Amino acid sequence: MNLKNVFLIFVLSYITWLALNWSVAPDILITGAIVSALIGLLFCRNCTVLQSVRLTPKSFAYAFAYVFVFSWDLLKSNIDVASRVLKPSLPINPGIVEVKTILKSNIGKMMLANSITLTPGTLTVDIRDDRMYIHWIDVTSTDIDEATRSIVSKFEKYLEVMYG
């Protein structure tokens, strides 16, 4: 059993517990700690996917910044797609583009793929080694490097520090 993974699951579970209960009453805090510890101990016997998570001050700072970068991109993408729906005269040029990723860990690639998919106008279709295939609502370039800069790079620099 990897104690780093148990600790990570404990922290994530406890934060979720606190967010759902929204209380600092002692009984809530103690119950949450016990339940979170049990979840970490019982469900993290074979947690290999979490081994690439980096628990350093720099990775926490990048994770905090990533929330804002992702939220900003999510807002911009929502506005873009909403404007295309409300103004049908705006051009769309849908297609699937290939992009490269520098991320090596599976969890890093998963986070990148989910971030791309959650932003309206893009959808991760497939991942193969260091390549991802993205459905893009308005393809501006089919060049791999250009598409990578447009879709992937803004997320990758944060995810690389967090997951490698």
Structure description:
- The protein folds into two domains: 3-44; 57-163, no CATH class.
- It is 60% helix and 12% strand.
- The chain contains six helices and three strands.
- It has helices spanning 3-21, 26-43, 57-86, 106-118, 144-151, 153-163; strands spanning 95-100, 122-128, 131-136.
- A hairpin with a 2-residue loop joins strand 2 and strand 3.
- The protein is globular and about 60 Å long.
- The two termini are 22 Å apart.
Kindly estimate the percentage of residues that lie in beta strands according to DSSP. Answer: 5-15%
By secondary-structure content and strand pairing, the structural class works out as mainly alpha
Main beta sheet: 3 strands, antiparallel
Number of strands: 3
Low-confidence stretches: none
Shape: globular
Number of helices: 6
Work out the radius of gyration: 19 Å
List the domain count as a whole number.
2
Helix content: 55-70%
Q: What is the arithmetic mean of pLDDT?
A: 90
Secondary-structure element string: HHHEHEEHH
Tell me the distance between the termini: 22 Å
Which strand order spans the largest sheet, edge to edge or round the barrel? 1-3-2
